[in-house]
Amino acid sequence: xxxxxxxxxxxxxxxxxxxxxxxxxxxxxxxxxxxxxxxxxxxxxxxxxxxxxxxxxxxxxxxxxxxxxxxxxxxxxxxxxxxxxxxxxxxxxxxxxxxxxxxxxxxxxxxxxxxxxxxxxxxxxxxxxxxxxxxxxxxxxxxxxxxxxxxxxxxxxxxxxxxxxxxxxxxxxxxxxxxxxxxxxxxxxxxxxxxxxxxxxxxxxxxxxxxxxxxxxxxxxxxxxxxxxxxxxxxxxxxxxxxxxxxxxxxxxxxxxxxxxxxxxxxxxxxxxxxxxxxxxxxxxxxxx
Length: 289
Hints:
The protein is mostly helical. The protein has a single domain (about 30-280), classed as Ribonucleotide Reductase, subunit A, CATH 1.10.620. It is about 65% helix and about 0% strand. It is built from eleven helices and no strands. The radius of gyration is 18 Å and the shape is globular. The protein starts with about 30 loop residues before the first helix and ends in a 10-residue tail after the last helix. Mean pLDDT is about 90; it is low at about 1-5 and about 275-289.
């Protein structure tokens, strides 16, 4: 019911830059690349609060290992929310209005919260699969952040490291919460959830990106084509994650079957990141209080 391999989850209490952005288009002077990451960041604080609540609601009866992993997962998510809230303030200071993007997230989360709590947990396990495959791609292919301002790139790599580390927790909590279900019932529910998320989440994010580009005065078919090329051409992050996204509904799926712990080690050993992160790492007790 727990992870197939021993994986340590370490909440890394790192503070990133709080000063104003030096460039409005901080990702290589590219408005499209900047909008993609800004739009994702706008969703994180609300989304991660939902994930923490969904997992905590189903921790009763979990064994000692899963309980500890849930606590560490929640601590990491709280830290992510703090740092992305700070980054989002910098986005707003740069002249963007991210309120429409946040309202869109609130609407979707309200729909999930109106369902039984187990639906929220199923959605959380699917979202965590999504963040894990995106994190894998960011860490495995440096081109995605090569042109970004170094401090912002460090923020995204830090977040990605955590997502790889705790990628099994929500799914293991889902297995724990549905331990009395048949495999067919579990598969049916999670398949419906991922189809729903696919229908809603990706168009929502595209609309959010296009809204930020509109605020830059960039609209129309040529802009849509630039975004499509960025997503599916080069660097092509959407193209690289699509097949991995579908793995969620395959029989026998478990996040631990993709062994990418080496990406954490490699990332932390590069450019002095290990010293920086280790010096500020501490275990928090957000979920065990």
